[in-house]
Design goal:
By secondary structure, the chain is mainly alpha-helical. It has helices spanning 2-8, 11-32, 35-38, 43-54, 58-65, 69-79, 85-103, 107-134, 143-196, and strands spanning 136-137, 140-141. Helix 6 (69-79) runs parallel beside helix 9 (143-196). The longest helix has 54 residues, at 143-196. The model has no long low-confidence stretch (mean pLDDT 86). It is a multi-pass membrane protein. Keywords: Cell membrane, Cell projection, Cilium, Flagellum, Membrane, Protein transport, Transmembrane, Transmembrane helix, Transport. This is Flagellar motor protein MotA.
Length: 204
Amino acid sequence: MWAIVEAAGWPIWTIIAASVVSLAIILERLYTLRRGAVVPQGLLAQTLQEYRRIGDKDELLQRLQGHSPLGRLFAAGLRNVHGSREVMKEAIEDEGRQVAYLLERLLTTLGTIAAMAPLLGLLGTVIGMIEIFGSQNASGANPQQLAHGISVALYNTAFGLIVAIPSMMFYRYFRSKVDGLLVEMEAQAVKLVEVAHGERKNGS
């Protein structure tokens, strides 16, 4: 592997750095965007049961705030439960924008890496081509320099694509997953508002 890196020349280090950042983001988002951590099953029913038992006490609100992103929406709604239905929904929507920002965190960076990795590979290709042309002299081509230029061109192109393809795949996957989670959280938050204002009998 080290021989390949040496053959690819210095441009490969920019692609390696991008691959490390991309892998770190992918692993972090896979852990953070677990459905059970974002939209825990049964939280709506549990919240309504606790609300009926103790009301909108700080104990319940603080527990929900630190529980999960969905819990944060519920806490924002219950803080305004004595206001109108519209006030309660606005509070949930305001909190929802902050939650959405946290769920989408780092995805822009991952998308940027997916877009830039092929360009970094192209940069290495251009540098390799420059070395190939530089190997030409009056007595002909320098075989060593010619071979090195070809290696730089091909390896950088390949590594750029190797980093870009999975980065783009995970970027699209995470975007779709975040959108799905936000829709589900919105639906459960609406149920909370309707039950709290007597428009539904339960949170099912």
